[in-house]
Amino acid sequence: MSKKTAVLFVCLGNICRSPMAETVFNKILAVRKLSDDFEVDSAGLIDYHEGEKADARMRNHARMRGYNITHISKPVNNVDFERFDYIVGMDDQNIRALTSRAVTEQQRQKICKMSDFCSLYKVNAVPDPYYGDDSGFIHVIDLLEDACEGFLQFIRN
Ligand code: 4NP
């Protein structure tokens, strides 16, 4: 049996974007019967929300689109840079923070930006919805559905 491909989605708080990304990606994998080939998780660059469920607004908008977010927030751990094959940040601030925490060039090469995998949307980030209104959460789901398809294509090529 070959090794699973390990993917870590990362955002700032790990209560909105990255748990949503993890949930969308897991659903795509399940539909394609690929779940056994992957290990998927998410984490945050700050530990402020550690132990909390995803933000209620994110969970509600997810539910309206047929997703159930079960992730509990946790911070990025240094071991993650070894354990995961892909470490996927949501915006340039995330990428900078991840890059500064990577120790080796091999670890740095695992870091990529989620919005680079969008094809329907031309964006340079999955923007932080935390301080905004409902439209920001809906936009996050739209972008992540687009990006997750592109990301799966990218890693299977
Ligand atoms: P996320 O959103 O990075 O998509 O989980 C945020 C959640 C919490 C905070 C910022 C962004 N915060 O400052 O507490």
Topology record:
Layout: E1 5-11, H1 17-31, E2 38-44, H2 56-64, H3 80-83, E3 86-89, H4 92-101, H5 105-108, E4 111-113, H6 134-156
Parallel strand pairs: 1-2, 1-3, 3-4
The structure holds 4-nitrophenyl phosphate.
4-nitrophenyl phosphate binds at residues 11-17, 48, 128, 130.
Output the helix-strand order: EHEHHEHHEH
Number of helices: 6
Percentage of residues in strands: 5-15%
How many individual domains?
A: 1
CATH topology tier name: Rossmann fold
Shape: globular
CATH superfamily: Response regulator
Secondary structure: helix percent: 40-55%
Strand order of the largest sheet: 2-1-3-4
Radius of gyration based on Cα positions: 14 Å
* Major sheet description: 4 strands, parallel
Head-to-tail CA distance between termini: 20 Å
Bound molecules: 4-nitrophenyl phosphate
Give the C-level CATH assignment.
Alpha Beta
Low-confidence stretches: none
Structural class: alpha/beta
Mean pLDDT: 98
Number of strands: 4
At CATH level 2, the architecture is 3-Layer(aba) Sandwich
